[in-house]
Amino acid sequence: MLLLEDEEGVRASVIRDLHRRYQQNRDYTPSPVTVPERGTDTAFVRHIAASVGLTPQRSRYYLFQEFEAYCGRQYAADQRVLLLIDDAHHLRLTTMRVLHSLSTVVVANDLAVGMVMIGRGEVVKQMQKESWRAFESRIGLRMRLSSREAKAA
Q1: CATH number assigned to the domain comprising residue 42
Q2: Mean pLDDT value of segment 20-37
Q3: To pair with 69 at 20 to 30 A between CA atoms, which of 45, 75, 77, 89?
Q4: Euclidean distance between CA atoms 37 and 91, whole angstroms
């Protein structure tokens, strides 16, 4: 998992560029997801399901089942799901738990979901809270973006 932090409003261009690049890379299926400012964890899972083309289900349980099955199909086709999560600074404890659950989806003893999270600086402060420790431990790389770096990418 990669966490990108920006202070200068370059998230949209980074998400577009990552989506374009990973569409060309046949190892991943990129799916942009924007974290809603307000909303339930079930609504967030529905949003993620829609981003990968799944039909929304009635309950979060069935949504997770469908997403895991989708990840299995992608993995069988030699692709992994890559969630490009914008506005990560809007994550709340319940939505973070959704992402933590999705980050643990395993197919054939291999993690099947990658994530790039992009948000304003407060996302780093959120990740330092003890209640977020399990999710924070899954982050492999952190970066702070400036408008110059985004243009170079």
Answers
A1: 3.40.50.300
A2: 85
A3: 89
A4: 8
